[in-house]
UBP-type zinc finger domain-containing protein
Amino acid sequence: MSESEIDTSAPPSGPGCQECLAGEGWWFHLRRCAACGHVGCCDSSPGQHATRHFEETGHPLIQSYEPGEAWFYDFRSREAGDGPELAEPTSHPADQPSPGPEGRVPADWTRRLHR
């Protein structure tokens, strides 16, 4: 994990997955790009927007955007690890449900997860 690929001053793009919020999507867990702050949904989520962001931009490092989690993941090596503290906030709001966003999660959401 190269710290030159991390911008510790880049704020997160918002409290939830940027693409899901722009459309009608929903997410299971959230991930934050360490290079630009883009918040996308995890690979278990229907949209898999964090991985799509990597594929479109080449930004290889993400951090969990879940409360109480600070691990990083490198898409190239497929390994998790530690990294520097990113700009606040370091997670979505604690009162935001997971899965989310509230009101959009289908009743059968567990059947719709990617495994």
About this structure: The beta strands are 30-33, 39-41, 61-64, 72-74, 79-81. The longest strand covers residues 30-33.
